[in-house]
Design goal:
Distance between the termini: 8 Å
Shape: elongated
Helix content: over 70%
Order of helices and strands: HHH
Largest sheet: none
Number of strands: 0
Number of helices: 3
Radius of gyration: 15 Å
Length: about 80
């Protein structure tokens, strides 16, 4: 569990049963994923950079998705 808290500290910010903190951290996670997706769209038009940008963008999207999942699990008290 310490390893998860080390790599995804934002996923554990939602408090168990606190709907306001859940909504705030979910909105932050969704905005992060939207901004990363927008940057991937901009980088996709460049020929060589698009490959590396796509890989890095994919990893960042997965990171954001894991943050959102951990946030919901933290809210439910499962982690």
């Amino acid at each position: 569990m310490d390893l998860l808290k080390k790599f995804w500290p934002l996923g554990f910010k939602a408090k168990k049963g606190d709907v306001v903190s859940l909504i705030v951290w979910l909105v932050i996670g969704i905005i992060f994923c939207a901004v990363v997706g927008w940057v991937i769209g901009l980088v996709a038009s460049l020929p060589i950079i698009s490959i590396f940008g796509g890989i890095i963008g994919l990893l960042m999207e997965i990171y954001g998705l894991v943050n959102i999942i951990l946030c919901v699990l933290s809210f439910l008290g499962k982690v």
